[in-house]
Every structure is written in structure tokens, then in C-alpha cells.
Amino acid sequence: MANTADSSQQIAHSAPVTGPVLGNDGRPLKASLAKSLRRQKLRALGLIAPLLIFVLLTFIAPIADMLFRSVENNIVGDVLPRTVVALKDWDATTGELPDNATFKAMALDLKEAVEDKSHTRLGSRLNYEQSGISSLFRQTGRKVKRLDVEETTDFVAAFEKMNKKWVDVENWQTIKAFSGRFTDGYFLAAADLTKGPEGVERVPENQQIYYTLLLRTLKMSMIITISCILLGYPIAFLLATLPLRTSNLLLILVLLPFWTSLLVRTSAWKVLLQQQGVINDTLVWLGVVADNARLELINNQTGTIIAMTHILLPFMILPLFSVMKTIPPSYVRAAKSLGANDWTAFWRVYFPQSVPGIGAGSILCFILSIGYYITPEIVGGTKGVFISNRIAYHISSSLNWGLAAALGTLLLVVVLGLYWLYDKFVGIDNVKLG
Amino acid sequence: MKMKSIILSTAAGVVAASAAGAKDMTIVSWGGAYSASQDAAYHQPYMKANSDVNIINDESSAEAVAKLRAMAEAGNTTWDVVDVVASDAIRLCDEGLAMEIDADTMLADAPDGTKASEDFGDLLVSECFIPQIVYSTTFAYRTDVDAWGGKEPNNICDVFDLEAFPGKRSLEKRPINNMEWALLCDGVDKADVYDVLGTEEGQQQALNKLDSIKSEVIWWSAGADTPQLLADGEVVMGSTYNGRLFSLIVEQEQPVKMMWDAQVFDLDGWIIPANLSDERKEAALDYIMFATDTQRLADQAKYISYGPARASSAPLVGKHEALGIDMAPHMPTDPENAKNTFLYNYEFWADYRDDIDAKFQAWLAQ
């Protein structure tokens, strides 16, 4: 590098002014500079390649795969290939049943599906869209084995005999509506919407949940972040100004919760906060509250806010501390010597310099709390749970991974949107970790 | 020279370990007292009889369905036998994640020669499910509540009676069971409960009834919550699995009593994951044949108060292994306790679970 730069300088001086500047190998200087820069970039890429490949394979690819499930809907076309083709010409809006040929296609498809039991899997997929389809497919699967496709002529009657739900147009409408390779059904569900006969509509009010949860998650994450700032700032200030020996000891106290299991910390809050718990007992003993009017500090939003503020506090204190460490104390002294009182010196001189730390801590706390679910699940009751609790429910309990993926994608988009807003108003350059 | 021998012995050790590993069997269950009872009644005797088998306990039953699906998608199922509740077994069967079981050829006959399918009877609720125990979700209450003036709740509807029985109650954070109890106490006949619950109005009716006690309910999601809440005095009554209440009342001697009224029977049992290699499948089936025979199921009841799923096991249920008390009166199936019972409707909940759950959660969030 140094060599190239030297020789190029030399040549630049001696070369004729017309035509491209040539290097001493006779090639244009610009090209050889670009070449050496490219080589440098490749080497840098080569150095980070192991990490890059690792992150791609273990992080980006699985997330992309999971998110893709929010639109993927191959199962209907795979299990019922003939039926899907036959249903193409059927007009779902007339309210009439599909023709006999479609029922026959369904019979042939189901007979094949029963072999590898994919009909029940399809049933549970479609049951997300309409209750009752799961048992319809399970029961029909048992009976369709005995159906003789060669002999039967009236398939509509044969299906009605197997289960009278087959002559219910609604079921066929659902199958047709979700017969494509891709679906927007999960995203609609994640936004409290549904596909009705007349297009997209809101689900009935008594089933709307995700909008409420998303709003609550954002609101409570904001409250938790703000309480972290309020509690963390004085501590970080203390840590940054105390002599090293004392501040190191205090820093260990801040870090101590990090080394304790999350579940243990959360359960400890349960013991403290419950109505027959330590805090309430003490308050009753002191006579601050009456025995029959104990405070409700847990199984509600208060519980979630208290426990999560405690758990996320180190993520606020550490960036704040490392930023405050770099603020020279002489600035405040200078301000004071120029006549500022304590508050003015702090507010006009010290505080503005610590803002990048607040920014970094806030982003950490906010983004971490948006994705939390263990702590809200344990101390949040019903009003203090987050949208992640629903995602966890759909992943591990209802097995509706498509909906979980859609909710996860929405959450990701919302967080990226907030990040963009943050960058626009605060500026991401103003964030410092130290 | 020394280096070489170290390498050799290490290599030999690895070979030996992988040879022994061929007989490892991973059995997944719920952990805690329940896994301990299975270990004592099934695993230890089985390993004694088959010295080449090494059983590894995994306590992941709570997330078994999701994990089995993930394993199947990755093409690497590491579990051999999995303990799940019946509704999960139905779902796993529907998803093609559990192997179908032919009860008469794959399970042991009763000692008197009764075929397994007859011995288990109605409890074989899915083609993939091998029932193990009958448990119930039921209520218990504290016996030292002053505000009740000496009365004790003995009817399921007392749970919904805040005037006679004030205080917090704990209910499970899901619609199943709660919706049924609400309808029962809102004048719906026991036989009609699921017909009513299948309609929009019926679901709303149940939620309205639950609404009347909503302010006094603490919602639980882990089976250990209610016993803890009862012991702490946080709630005056609450629902949970009867085995948990047994250990609270009998083993920990807390001032708590069982209510039993309108207890909801449910089943827990084994499934074998689909797509195991032939060798592992055979080993799993051999274990299942042993662990679900009449004597073994009766043995488990020595350690925990859940009723054995075989009719032929019931007469063999004896005394508690450590406390020496008779277990029969603590079984949910005991005639004295089972005067008024309710059977969980699997088919109904497989169909309506998502729909009603969405409504229930929306109602909770209000």
C-alpha cells in the first residue's frame, strides 16, 4: 500500500498532463489503485468470512425460513391437488355447492391423503380458519377408506352420508379461499382481520386481541425504559464520580443480578410482591395499609413493570456509566467557575454530554423488553402480558406456526420502523456505548 | 509412547461409549414428582430386566408437541418415548408425528387374558395414544377462612359465589374446563354443555358467567401455581391437577381440603414418535409393552395419586410407598370422589380450541 502510494505520487508529478495517468507498470493509475483496494476488501471479507457464514447459517437463514412460513400455504394444493383444480371454476359467492365432479375429486384426493395421514394435517391447518374442519377431515378420513370410487355415482350424497357438514357451503368456501400456494391469512389474523364473503373485514370485537397486545407491548416497553432511565441515571452518575475502589464495588452489585438465573429473580419478585408477601406484610405491620386492603402489586401491569425494570436495569446503567466515564470533570468545574450554580452546571454542561448514553441504554432496554415473555408470563397476570406471550403460545401450544411467524414479522417491522423514527429524530450517531 | 497409549485408550473409550450409546433410550415426561413415580414404577424395573438399556430422562413434555414437530422437520428425532396428555396425542397423531399403535398386538393383555383394547376401553382416544393414568382437574380450598363463617364450599357453583365464599380464586389461564364449569353453574344441563359451547351465544354465556368472578381470579399457567398460592394464602380456593393437591394436603399437611365436585377427568399417556429407525422403534415398543402392563400401572399409584388407566389395575392399587396410607381414597376415580364428574371432550376441543381460545384471550385482555 505505502509503496503504491509513494510511486503513484512520484509518477503523478512526472507524467504528461494529457491522457490517463499511468503507473510504472504502464497501466492507468486509477485502475491499479482500484485493483489494490478491491484486493484489500476481499482480504477483509476473507477475514470475516467464517463469522459471516456462521451468522448466515445459524441466524439469518433460520429466521428467514421461519418468517417465510407466515405466507407459505402449500399444504392444501399438495394434499388436495384434484380438488383445487376442480374448485377453480366454482363460484364461491353463489352459495351453491360445488358440482359432483368436485366431490369426486375430493374423494380421490382424500383416499390418497389417508395413506400418509396428511388429511388430518390439512384438517388442523384449515381449522385455524374455520372451527370444526379438523374433526370433519378426521372423521371423513376414517370413512372414506370404505368408499368405492368406481361404483359411486352420486358423490354429493355419499359425502353427506359420511358427514353432513360436507353439504355446508361454508366449508367449501374456506377450502377454496385457502387453496393457493401462498396466503395472506396469517397476516390478516395477526392484524385482527379475516376474509369474509365480501372481502377483508375486522374480526368480531370479542375476538380482537393482537392490536391490543401490540399496543400494550409498545406502551409498557416505553414505561419500562423510562423507569430504567430514572432509576439508572443517578446510579450511573454515582458510579462515574465515586473513587475507583468504591465504584468498582458498586459496579459488582449492579452486575450481580446478571449472574443470577432470570427465573430465580422473577420468582423472588413473586415472593416480595404478592398480597401475602413481604412488602404487603411490612406495610400492614407499619399500619400504612389495612389488612383487608392489601396492595395488588403482582399479576397485573404493575408487577410486569417492576420486575422487568429490575431485570433490564443493568442494560441501562452500563452504557450510561461508560459514557459518563468519558465526560471530563473539568467541564463542570469550568462551568461552576464561570458562575453556574450546581443545577445549571449539571443541566447545561454535564447532562447534554451524557445523552448518547441514555440513547444507547434506551435502545437496549426497549428492544429487549419488546421481546420478553418469561417475566410477563410469571408476574403479568392477564393485563401485563406482551405479544411475545402469544407468539410463544402459537409456537409451542396451538402449533399455528404461520400465525406466530406473521406476528413475529409484524413485531420486527414495528421495531425497525421505530428504529427509523429514532434515527430521524435523535440520530443513531448520537448513540454511544462508551 | 505415553502419548500413543493415551490416544489409544481415548479411542477405545469413544468406541465403548458409542457402543453403549446404541442402547440409550430417551424418555420424555413432565419432571418433578410425576417423573419420579415413573422412574420408580417403570424405568428402574425395566433397566433391571434389560441391563443393556440405559434410560435417559428428559423433562420436556410441556413443549413436546412443538419440539417433536421441529425434530421431524429437521429429520432427526432424538426422543424414543414421549409422555403427553391425550389432547396433545390427538394433535400429534393428526400431524402425523406419532406412530399408530395397535393395542391388541403391541400392548400386554391383562393377567386374566382380557385383550388390551378392552382393558383400556374408551380411554384409547386416539390411534396413537397409549393411556397411562386418569387424572383430574379439580378444586381445593383453604379450611381456615374466617370470612366464610364456618361454611365450606362443596359445590362447583360455590366457586362462582362471591357472597358466600369471598376471596381470590385461581383458575387456569385457558378456556378448557373453565368454560364448562361456568355453563354448568349458569343452569346448563351437564349433557348439553358441549352443544351449548359450540354456539356463539353459548361461548358468550360462559364468558359472562366467568365475568362475574373475573376481578377475584388469579390465572395460573403451571400446575404448581395453585398449590403454592393456596399454601401462601394468596387464594382461598383454586383448580389444579389432583396429584398436586394430594401432595399439598397429605405430604405437606397444609390446611387445605379437596372439593372433587365436577372434577374433570383427563388422560395422560405415551406416544412413540413417527419415523423412528426400526431398531429404535422395536426398543420403544418393548419398553411400552412392559411399562403399560397391569402390574406396572398399578405400581405407579404407589407414588402418586393418579388412577391407572387399565380396568384390571384398579384392584391392585395399594398403599403409598413412603407414607403407608391407603391410596384408593385419594384417587379421582374413587366412587366417593367421583360422585359428580365431567369427561373432557377431546373431539370438541380439537375443533374449537383455536376459536374459543382467541375469544377467551381477548376477554382476558379486556
Automatic annotation (TrEMBL), chain A:
Q: Which UniProt keywords apply?
A: Cell membrane, Membrane, Transmembrane, Transmembrane helix, Transport
The terms describing its cellular component in GO are:
plasma membrane
Pfam families (UniProt xref): BPD_transp_1 (PF00528)
Q: Which InterPro entries match?
A: MetI-like (IPR000515), MetI-like_sf (IPR035906)
- Determine if tRNA-binding is one of this entry's keywords: no
Record's keyword annotation contains Cell membrane: yes
- This protein's major location comes to membrane
Transmembrane stretches in the record are: 44-64, 220-242, 249-268, 305-323, 355-374, 401-422
Q: Which PROSITE patterns does the protein's record reference? A: ABC_TM1
Annotated Polar residues bias:
1-12
* Residue numbers spanned by region Disordered: 1-23
Q: Where is the ABC transmembrane type-1 domain?
A: 214-422
Q: Which GO terms describe its biological process?
A: transmembrane transport
Cellular compartments annotated: Cell membrane
Q: How does it sit in the membrane?
A: Multi-pass membrane protein
Extract the PANTHER family matched here: ABC TRANSPORTER PERMEASE PROTEIN, INNER MEMBRANE ABC TRANSPORTER PERMEASE PROTEIN YDCU-RELATED-RELATED
The record's comment on protein family reads: Belongs to the binding-protein-dependent transport system permease family. CysTW subfamily.
Write the protein's name. Polyamine ABC transporter substrate-binding protein
Top-down, what is the taxonomic lineage of the species of origin? Bacteria, Pseudomonadati, Pseudomonadota, Alphaproteobacteria, Rhodobacterales
TrEMBL record, chain B:
Extent of the signal sequence? 1-22
Cite the SUPFAM superfamilies for this sequence: Periplasmic binding protein-like II (SSF53850)
Which keywords, in A-to-Z order, does the entry hold?
A: Signal
- Cited InterPro entries: SBP
Positions the record marks as coiled coil are none
PANTHER family reported for this sequence:
ABC TRANSPORTER SUBSTRATE-BINDING PROTEIN, SPERMIDINE/PUTRESCINE-BINDING PERIPLASMIC PROTEIN
Name under which the protein is recorded: Spermidine/putrescine ABC transporter substrate-binding protein
Record lineage: Bacteria, Pseudomonadati, Pseudomonadota, Alphaproteobacteria, Rhodobacterales
